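Lab notebook: predicted structure, single chain.

Context: the supervisor wants predicted structures on file for every construct in the current expression panel, including those that have not yet been purified. This is the next one on the list. No modifications to the sequence; it matches the entry in the shared construct table.
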Amino acid sequence: MSNLHILTADEQQAFDYPPTLSVEMRALCFAIDTSLDKVLNKLRTPATKVGFLLQYAYFKGYQRFFFMSRFREEDKEYAAKLLNLSTQKIDLSNYKQRLPGLHQKKILALLGYKAFDNDTYEWLKKETYRQAECQCEPKQAFTHLIHLLIQHKIEIPSYHQLAELITLVYAGFENALIKKLNKKLKKSDRKLLDPGFN
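Prediction complete. Output recorded below exactly as produced.
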């Protein structure tokens, strides 16, 4: 089953890629407080320090993690300068394998957020079902789920994960309605709805 088209292709890209930060937003997201400074000082390589700071800044600003390949070049340079590191020494291909995932756990703890896990998924399924019952459009349900995650300080997953969840719930809700109708409709009702019905 293919996912519902909840956002346009441009909206999906905007959701799943780090946005262009304004000067003020960049200063706010990349601000290094005492707790963050302690963590950064324990990291060994320039790539690890810059990788961690980028993930931290993006999450602080947008409550989600992005693929490393999507990090913006201007943000890499900003992070390196902030850490007094030469941008030429930063090769983020060295920041890979298990490190980004381990760092994400640390970032969630630093910022007081919870990871998007199975419990969250099940909770959002129930919330999405309520949206379907109210006959909300899938896009409204999508926006509602984002607001709930922000309100409860939970990591926002990718567009694909949310679209898959909404598609699953809405398709299930529709199938349940069809089954109920099939049970309740008499032969005479079906003939009224479909004159070609025998």
